[in-house]
Amino acid sequence: MKCDFYPMAIHPNTASMLKESASEMLHVAEYCINYRKDAQWEANQVGGCLGYPAAVMLFSLVDMIGSFHEGDQTLQISINGQMKTIASDGYQHFFILNSHYYELALTEDQIKIVYKNFRSKLVHNLAMPPEHTLSIGENETKSFEFQANNTRVNLKPFFDISKTAVSAFIQNVDTIVPSSRQGINLNS
Questions:
Q1: 92-99 long-range contacts, Cβ below 8 Å, gap at least 24?
Q2: pTM, full prediction
Q3: What average pLDDT score do residues 101-106 get?
Q4: In the sheet that 150-154 helps form, which strands lie side by side, from edge to edge?
Q5: What is the pLDDT of residues 145-175, one digit of tens each?
């Protein structure tokens, strides 16, 4: 059996790699959102998209942009009416949702909900708490809808703002990455 080897692109630095990887993540997310499940899927899934992988891709992009601004004192983000920076990893990376990249106005509690119940649960468990849902959200304008005991992520508007955010990040990635958090270990 013949096996052709096609290496991935070789990059001279992290910024170059991010230009490719972030674009790939967006491409996969868009494919997943536009895909419609047909009769080969269970009846209650027909008509839906590949929402879980789309959400994982989009939340990974948020986390990536936030991580490269961790410790960046020049990026001041309004959280609960106070100007904050991304001082540590974890949910604080998601402060980036309120920055010029995404232009949302989430509270710190809402950011924690999104991080804990969507990003972390999907990435680590491929599941979310039952009261939190994903929707294609084709006719929605809000990426996130918060109610007392339910939060919904509308994937289409989340993808649209993510596309804008990634484009803005990539435009400046050559200046952002060298000044990003010290000690990032891309070898592990």
A1: 92/66, 93/62, 93/63, 93/65, 93/66, 93/67, 94/62, 94/63, 94/66, 94/119, 95/66, 96/62, 96/65, 96/66, 96/69, 96/165, 97/62, 99/69, 99/75
A2: 0.88
A3: 97
A4: 132-135, 150-154, 144-147
A5: 999 889 999 999 999 999 999 999 999 998 8
